[in-house]
Amino acid sequence: MRRAGSLVLLPAFAALLATAFAVASADDSSTAIKTDSLLPGDNFVGWVGQPIYADDLFEALPESQLVYNWDGEAEQFRFASPHVRGDLYKIDPGMGIVIRISGDEAVAWRRPDDRPVPIVFLEPGWNLVAWSGADGVSLGEARSSPDLKEADIVAPEKVERLDFGDAIWVNAPHAIEWRQVPGVPIDLIATETASAVNKNALITEALSAMDWYKQEFELEIATHLTLYLHFDCEELLADALPEHDVLGELQCLGSYHPFSAWAGPDYVVVDLSALYMWGNSWRPHDFFRDVYTHELAHVLQYQLLERSLLDEPAWLVEGVAMWMTTHRKILAD
Ligand SMILES: [Zn+2]
Q1: How many angstroms separate the alpha carbon of residue 260 from the centre of ligand 1?
Q2: 3-class DSSP assignment, residue 329
Q3: Residue-wise over 42-64: b if at least 16 C-beta within 10 A, else e?
């Protein structure tokens, strides 16, 4: 994927990478585990792990006989069952789900809690989402978020205080960007046509890619990132913050530019139509994971170089970003 402005790789970066390789352990299983007690009947859970297929959840939790969630965009429930073909295939971070446990005994459930979703995009109307804030936050405190001004929060099961990984109902009067955790150094500026599902996938994967570079190479993005998500070039230019020259030497060609994503020193632009062009629209997490692993490599190149060098060899600049994406996939397998 092409970058606007300059992206370069210097020996300093290569040396840093070499060091990172030397210290990075082969252990990529840094997944945190949370133990929950699930009661017979319906249990509300906020999903804060990696995206997981419903079938894999049933395998890990054989006592579960049904999982369902509320699709805020379609305004309908979706379900999965080990016995009947349902219409819920994948559970993504940020989703609130209901797990039905059979039998009459509580089940101890060890589940991953390594994928916090500090910014949640809400559809107008009801949303069932995960709580990624601190443990023990009262409903009143959660409701007092300025983002939720006219929204209503209802905790299922008469919960008075929220813990990380709980599920929560939110009724939003319009589309809302809810920062459950303040101070996350990311802004998303997206086309109005982007769905909450796609925006939630984008934010989760951008944060996850940042975390991956930190864990794997001890490389930290030191700047506040602005993420752009658009369909249309003119709209992108209209939305771009004045300090961001998001096209650089590129031009709007016809309806759009020829690249699906690119990065600058403190921003990343993604063309949402690439999600559909590449046939990944039902797996936005996979798409955004690859895109942000690649583009954040460029942001880090800018950061480590501290200068713009358009003349650096593209094979080296792009090679590193492409290698990162492949490397991450291999480690995840
Ligand atoms: Zn690139």
Answers
A1: 10
A2: helix
A3: ebbbbbbbbbbebeebbeebebb
What's the gap in Å between 307 CA and the centre of ligand 1?
17
pLDDT at residue 189 tops 70: yes
Is 279 part of any domain? Answer: yes
* CA of residue 209 to ligand 1 center, whole Å: 15
Q: How far does residue 321's CA lie from ligand 1's centre (Å)? A: 6
Q: Are residue 146 and residue 200 in the same domain, yes or no?
A: no
Domain that holds residue 220: 11-27+184-332
User: What is the whole-number distance in angstroms between the Cα of residue 298 and the centre of ligand 1?
Assistant: 7
Label residue 247 by pLDDT band (50, 70, 90).
confident
Q: Are 198 and 284 in contact (CB under 8 A)?
A: yes
Instruction: Encode pLDDT of 11-65 as tens digits.
Output: 444 444 444 443 333 334 456 787 888 999 999 999 998 889 999 999 999 999 9
Same domain as 147, residue 200: no
| Ligand 1 centroid distance, CA of 154 (Å) | 43
Residues 246 and 194 in one domain: yes
Pick from 175, 178, 72: which is nearest to 126 by CA? 72
- pLDDT tens string 258-305: 678 999 899 999 999 889 887 788 889 999 999 999 999 999 999 988
Query: For 93-243, where are the alpha helices, taking DSSP H only?
Result: 139-143, 196-217, 233-239
Distance 297 CA to ligand 1 centre (A): 8
State how beta strands 96-101 and 64-71 pair: antiparallel
Write down the pTM of the prediction: 0.85
Q: What is the dihedral of CA 119, 324, 114, 117, to 10 degrees?
A: 10
- Residue 182 has what pLDDT? 86
